[in-house]
Amino acid sequence: MKKLLILGMIALLAGCKGPKSPETTEPESYSADWESLAKHKASPEWFQDAKLGIYFHWGVYSVPAYGSEWYPRLMHFENTKEYKHHLETYGHPSEFGYHDFVPMFKAEFFDAEEWADLFQKAGARFAGPVAEHHDGFSMWDSDATPWNAADMGPKKDITGLLAAELKKRDMKLITTFHHAKQLQRFDSTETGSRTEGYELSHYPFFKGMPPASDDEKLKYLYGNIPAEQWYEEIWYAKLKEVIDQYQPDIIWFDYVLDAIPEEYRQKFSAYYLNEAEKWDKEVVIVRKQEDLPINYTVDDLEKSRKNRIGEEPWMTDETISKGSWCYTENLEIKTSTDVLHVLIDIVSKNGILLLNVSPMANGIIPENQKEVLLDMGAWLDKYGESIYETRPWYTFGEGPTKEPEGHFKNHQEFLKIKYSAKDVRYTTKGDVIYATLLGWPGNGESIGFTAFAPDSLPAPLEIASVSLLGSADPLDWNVTEKGLSLTTPEEAPDQMAVVFKIETR
């Protein structure tokens, strides 16, 4: 009876509370249309100040360590070296599929703290993973797909572990997405072709091969899912998961994004930007080609860069190697000097560098890659005032070395570029102009900066002092109608690049 009486009193009190007030929510700033999204500021100040980020192509494709990160695709085409290698090493792709590499991707030596330390020492202000490449394997703890690093392979939330370490170091998080190509958009059984038609699809639909399997679980890896279901439950759902779980500061997209229907690109953009407002974060969306409107996004140039100052901040994604983006055996690595020069050139033209490294499947970043990162970081530690928080001057520089026109299609030409001490790159901050020589011209050498010629300057300029960062020796300098001329000291502060600090009134 006591229990009944108590329950009755609770019910009576509940009934006396009156009607429940409707929940109020703040109106969202962005709706899923291009006009609304255009209100977003594409490049916040922190992004323009950062200049350098590091990411990494690391995943199941790192296991075969052969060819490139495109191994999952090319292993199915009989005319490729990847197919022949796979046949000889693992067996026919119909019997040993790409999914059979997953248990071999153990990442047993992955240490998020060690990686974050390395990226910070390299001078990066932001870092993060290739969250998912074209291959369909997610490098985070996902409910959208069983093929994820937390449930398979490493059985570690790679993105989450690294994000936590970056946050401790006050570094921003970037997550990159290449998964627009994962959907199978072409069925070779309709045409009989075993080579053509796959420009927009990563995996080929060949009968008897795993990508054509009816196995429901395999379909999530190989993208063999009806398009409308895939757009909502895979492409968008994966983005939403990463946004909700890790609150990335930058989301970057690879190509084929234009094959995603507009409504989904708009839906993603509005969701990300509205969530960022709730977090009180200024975030960045980076895209290639014309895959999203440029008025609210940042343009990315793969393995290439501008040969003039960009009107708006832009980004280059470049890799530390001369070949594959992922680790492969005998991967040739660029010199520290070459990587540093690319960064200096990009920054002088209003750009930001996103530099890729290539860890091994076991989670070790090879020593030759670490050496390049640490060399660059040591230079930035001494002379970073000429890079971080700077903006372009009226001209990016001078010298004989010119970059080609065009972007990725000319990436082999960009790879051939070698700068020298005759090449100068300018940046500015407040009343200071930095002139960086991409090398050491020699001791006691006379050099000139023609950008300071009075007839060339956009406005009159009075120089108060000129010094060489890292050197205590006073400089002999003067300004003539030909520009600023000076004589280098008898000792070089650095061999990779030297910075002259020009203070103005």
Write the layout of secondary structure elements.
Layout: H1 2-15, H2 34-37, H3 45-50, E1 52-56, H4 71-74, H5 81-89, H6 112-121, E2 126-132, H7 158-168, E3 172-177, H8 216-222, H9 227-246, E4 250-253, H10 262-279, E5 284-288, E6 298-302, E7 314-319, H11 336-348, E8 351-357, H12 367-383, E9 397-398, H13 411-416, E10 424-429, E11 432-437, E12 446-449, E13 463-468, E14 476-480, E15 483-487, E16 498-504
Parallel strand pairs: 1-2, 1-8, 2-3, 3-4, 4-5, 5-6, 6-7, 7-8
Antiparallel strand pairs: 9-10, 10-11, 11-16, 12-15, 13-16, 14-15
Helix pairs in contact: 6-7, 6-12, 9-10, 11-12
- If strands are numbered along the chain, what order do they take across the biggest sheet? 1-2-3-4-5-6-7-8
Number of domains: 2
Overall mean pLDDT score? Answer: 93
**Rg from C-alpha positions?**
27 Å
The total strand number stands at: 16
The proportion of strand residues reads 15-25%
CATH class of the largest domain: Alpha Beta
Question: Can you describe this structure?
Answer:
The chain is α/β, with parallel strands linked by helices and 505 residues long. The protein contains 13 helices and 16 strands. It has helices at residues 2-15, 34-37, 45-50, 71-74, 81-89, 112-121, 158-168, 216-222, 227-246, 262-279, 336-348, 367-383, 411-416, and strands at 52-56, 126-132, 172-177, 250-253, 284-288, 298-302, 314-319, 351-357, 397-398, 424-429, 432-437, 446-449, 463-468, 476-480, 483-487, 498-504. The strands form three sheets. An eight-stranded parallel β-barrel has the order 1-2-3-4-5-6-7-8, surrounded by four helices. Strands 9-10-11-16-13 form a five-stranded antiparallel sheet, with helices on one face. The longest helix is centred in the middle third of the chain and has 20 residues, at 227-246. The protein is globular and about 75 Å long.
